[in-house]
Amino acid sequence: MTGSKRDAIRTGPERTGPVRTGLAIALALSLLLAAWDASTSRAQTTTWEQWQHLEGIVDVGGARNDGNLVVMAAGRLFLVSASGSIAPFANGGDGFVGSPDAEPYFVVAPVLTSQPAGAQPAGCSFTPDELFVLDLGFPTGVVRVDAGGHASHFATIPNVDMLDGIAFDTTGRFGDSLIVAGEREGATTVVTIDCRGRVTTVTDTAPPFEGGLAVAPLGFEPYGGDLIGADELTGQIWAIAPDGSATLVAVPNLPTGGDTGVESLGFVPPGFISAGGFAYLADRGTPDNPFPGTDSLLRLSAQTLSAAGVQDGDLLVATEGGGLTVAVRCTATACTTLRVADGPPGAHGEGRIAFVIPAAAAGR
Q1: Least confident of 109-123, 147-161, 199-213, 269-283
Q2: CA gap 80, 69 in Å, rounded
Q3: Which of 4, 177, 199, 244 lies 20 to 30 Å from 49 when distance is taken between CA atoms?
């Protein structure tokens, strides 16, 4: 997570000037990556494609019902079509404007089909294609951007020092709510937000994690329906249940540390492999950093992921430093990891891993 308070405290700022020990850090990280590479099978491993250039790209979400991805770059929103055309979004007088140096992660509202009785207030529901963006100012909260690009305050989240991630519950175990994670005094606070902006605390004592978050599909046993998050400093991947309890899912054999360890994740959706879609990841340009990034929207095809052994329902996890990517597959008794991809040289991954199934296959 670039520029976060955790990084500032534990690893030093990365945008405020040259890193005095940059060469030493780069050498140490190179040796670390080399050691990891030597201990991990490279069979069928591929490289994320540098697909489209976007200055300051920090997160990607979607796709919307019109097939477009939504991208956050330098505090602005953009729509990216399947062909790669890029258009500004929500840039009017009542649109969204964030700091170009911050990380306002966001999520696109999906079509929620579980809808358990009483999950949301009567006469209220989330609207597909609306965006919910972390408001990193004071007070911290969430901004709603409707499908037309109009932004408005949605909710205030008290008692956190900063906000670290956002996801939608697509299983109903959290009541089909928006889920937001924040940090306070070294622990993670997890809250749910219903469609009227009502905030409910799930836990304020969860282990540290941040970046791309996702709710596990029900078939991802025994963590189906749990919120999944990763901690770059330790490499640990955690599951947070609706009752607030935390369980360690896995610690992949990947480099760890600030701006280095696991950062981005996403679950391969049903039908993705057979439909021939793409997975997407933001590679943020980060000057004066051992992983300077390319300011690119990266992608991997379903065909490539399938050749690497990835299946529908797997959890893809990528490191911030280098975009090293593994698939995590869990059963009721154990989780296994499989290395599937590397990032471009010097990649600096941020935010979530988003998946797009072609419109024809998705029935749009």
Answers
A1: 109-123
A2: 5
A3: 4
